[in-house]
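Researcher: Go.
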Amino acid sequence: MIRLPFYGKGRADGIRGGSITPPFVLTSAKQISPIECSMDANLNDANLSDALLSDVSLSEANLTDADLARAYLNDANLSGALLRGANLNGTNLSGAVFSGADLTNATLVGADLTDAILAVTNLTGADLTRANLDHANLTIANLTDANLTDANLTGSDRSYANLSGAILSDTDLEECVMIKANLERATLVGCNIFGISTWGVRTAGAIQRDLILTGTFEPMNLQLGLTTST
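Model: Structure:
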């Protein structure tokens, strides 16, 4: 496994905020997979858009404000990584591990997070518009004020997740698990909630209308019927 230590400030083939020691060379396609970066690697403000980073290990790396748009990070290890304000629009993150990572205010518009592990991940204020979170693990994740408009959360597990103030307009929640989830002040408009599993969900102050409760995908003017108890 190749190790790429990043340190100090510098630039190497479009990478800002970190330099690479020789003899490693990035191609124009930025293909640096598979690699293993040193723990707490400094990639602050790095430009890794369109990079090929499948199976990469960036555990506990600092990727604050990094540009990872359209990159291939499928099956990557990003556990404990700092991704505040990072650009992950259109990025392939299927099967990636984000356990304990901080993605506060990150943008993941249209990102592929199929089967991703986002347990205990901080996604406060993150933009997940049109993101694919099919069967993703979001247990105990913090999605306060996150935007999940038109996102696909089919079969995902959001047990004990905090979605207070989150926007879930036209979101597909079919067959997802929401045990003890916090949906207080959340917006749930036009959501598909067919076959969801719920218990002890908190919905005080939530906006609920035009929810799809049947397999015919016809909106019904009904409430979720979830409890508002703590």
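Model: Residues 1-36, 216-223, 225-230 have pLDDT under 50 and may be disordered.
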